[in-house]
Amino acid sequence: MSEWYRLVQTIVEEVDEYIMKRNDEVLTLSNLSGKLCYSEFYISRKFREISGMYFHVLLKKLMA
Predict the structure, then answer these.
(1) How far is C-alpha 21 from the chain's CA centre?
(2) Using CB atoms within 10 A as the burial measure, which of 10, 35, 42, 59 is most buried?
(3) CB atoms < 10 A from the CB of 55, how many?
(4) CATH fit for domain 2-63, picks 1.20.120, 1.10.10, 1.10.3470, 1.10.1660
(5) pLDDT, tens digit, for every residue of 3-34?
(6) Would you give the distance in Å from CA 10 to the centre of its chain?
(7) 56-64: long-range contacts, CB 8 A cutoff, minimum separation 24
């Protein structure tokens, strides 16, 4: 179980780093999955598991 947790934590850290460094790029799940080499479904699911929030909700908050 701890290996799974480390993997998920790594993904969340990669997502966070990408969000913080995105400069003027449009932040979408599609762009994020391409940059991180994970499927959109996988990123969305893991993001929800860890944060308790849907990715599209985060996008709305960031763009507000």
Answers:
(1) 13
(2) 59
(3) 20
(4) 1.10.10
(5) 777 777 777 787 778 777 766 677 788 888 88
(6) 10
(7) 56/29, 59/27, 59/28, 59/29, 62/19, 62/27, 63/27
Task: Write b or e for each residue in 12-27: b if 16 or more Cβ atoms lie within 10 A of its Cβ, otherwise e.
Answer: bebbeeeeeeeeeeee
**Tokens standing for 3?**
């290996």
Q: Which of 2, 6, 12, 3 is nearest to 46 (CA)?
A: 12
**In the chain, where the domains are located:** 2-63
SS3 17: helix
Both tokens of 5, joined, read: 């947790």
User: With contact defined as beta carbons under 8 Å apart, do 43 and 15 qualify?
Assistant: yes
